[in-house]
Amino acid sequence: MTGESQAPRGFHLRTLVVGAVLSAAVAYVTTYSDMVVKGMQLGVLQFAPGAVGSFLLVYGVVKLLRAFGRLRWMTAADLLVIYLMLFAAVFVSTRGFTEKLMPAPVYLNYFADPINQYAQRFIPYVNPALVAFDPQGELKQPVAVEFYESLRSGSLPWGKWIRPLGMWFLLYLLLAWSLFCLGVILRRQWADHERLTFPHTVLPTRLLDESLARQFLRSPLTWMGFALAFTPFLINGIHLAVPTFPQIPLLFWNVQNLFPSPPWNQMFGTSIFVSFAAMGFAYFLPNDLLFSLWFFFTLTRLADVVAASYGIELQNMPSYPTRHYIGYQVAGAYMVIALVFVRSGWGYYKQVVQTALRRQPSPDTGEAFSSTWAVWGLIAGFVAIVAWCVWAGINVWLVVALWAIFLFVTCTVMARSVAEAGFLMTETSFKPSDIVGIFSTRALWGNSSWTHIAFLDAIFFRDLRGMLLSLFLDSQQLAPRHGLRRAALPLLFGVAIVVAFVSAAASELWLHYTRGGVNLYGYP
């Protein structure tokens, strides 16, 4: 077998239970690693190290038990279920959602002061159901202070967090459903018509296919490559825990140190470091793609030099590590790329929409559900998202614009980058509100709208790492190869997402209230 489809056999119910337990466990481990250890961010890549490492451990245990005549019931489909659930758990529990969510319900109350004027500009307009503090109460309420500075006495205020976390998680579930429906629609065009390679499916395919696994695991080159990449990370990981242990430096120098004089010293911050993961993944990517990444990255730095030589003031993009003009160039490029996607697949997308609107029988076989269901599911999910945001306090037309840009431009382009080019990180240089802000002002939409858009920016729009859409697309490619029905995917993802969120949210609250948020990882 080299990736051909197998007859769908489904999976065992006990596998779902095992996957749920493992999802809860990996959610706690990745949360602890990100927030306490800090140097090991296990969920920032679309090919998440936390999920890959956890699955390899499970895979090794299963192989060992099989050698002793145990777990013979566990098929490739069962292992794939665990693989996908682990990825969903890592995405949900770290940068994909929970890690960004947890500070939001108390941030304004804790950090408000006379300088930033949060108490006048934002807090009066906050929907009380979305925060853990009382917007009508005083600043520095115990629920916020103890979140950042740890509990002084008493027990964790679980009750104050249930409603806001539940409401935000509801929005996340609506987003996940919408992305899954979008993935069902995109899969046939990208996989069957355009023949994208989906590089992130290579490793699980090699491990789950018995013949490929034997060849892969018995190759000396496999273990040489693994040792080359794993050894420095193992040594540096020990160094993080035991500072007296030696360290292998992977960061070589900052490019700015080579150019101390203007205008060259005006280049945006650039560091050169060694990434064995990037090297290994680059091996599978086309040379023209790799060259274009380097070429255009270098071009952005040279553009800084040219601008500085003409005396142009170089400003940074808010919330992103890039220049202001680069951020908006990227936004424009995303718009054009999204239009190219629509134009290249116009015949297919037109047929899908027409079939759904006319309620004709869909010819789809073997999909998670028919394209008709996917279209109406996407519409229902989008409408529900809009309704949630309007309930929160955002203008309906503003909500439609923001989420349309996010779903059909930002997420789609990023997912395409992963499916076609194997991008490891899905981080953008703009938010939907940056584009909307070009054509309107804050005064036009009102204080309540922009207050809650700030929440959406922080929790959903700013950072796309841990994005579910690419995982949903990969899962639809992997399922038929290993005997798993695509129709089972919504169930296993739903279980993994719910279990992982509960585990991660509880872990985050426990860590913040026992250690103090100011002592934990500070990115969110």
Descriptive overview:
With 524 residues, this protein is an all-alpha fold. The chain has one domain (13-241, 257-519). The chain is 65% helix and 1% strand. The protein has 22 helices and two strands. A two-stranded antiparallel sheet has the order 1-2. The radius of gyration is 24 Å and the shape is globular. The relative contact order is 0.18.
Strand content is under 5%
Q: Report the total helices.
A: 22
Main sheet specs: 2 strands, antiparallel
Name the helix and strand elements from N-terminus to C-terminus, one letter apiece: HHHHHHHHHHHEEHHHHHHHHHHH
Distance between the termini: 44 Å
Mean residue pLDDT: 90
* Class inferred from helices and paired strands: mainly alpha
What proportion of the residues is helical, as a percent range? 55-70%
Number of strands: 2
Short description:
With 524 residues, the chain is mostly helical. It has 22 helices and 2 strands.
List the helices and strands and how they pair.
Elements: H1 13-37, H2 49-67, H3 76-93, H4 98-101, H5 104-111, H6 118-121, H7 142-149, H8 158-193, H9 202-208, H10 210-217, H11 220-241, E1 251-254, E2 271-273, H12 276-282, H13 287-309, H14 324-344, H15 346-358, H16 371-392, H17 396-421, H18 432-439, H19 442-445, H20 447-461, H21 468-481, H22 489-515
Antiparallel strand pairs: 1-2
Question: What labels would you give this structure?
Answer:
single chain; 524 residues; mainly alpha; two-stranded antiparallel sheet; 2 strands; globular
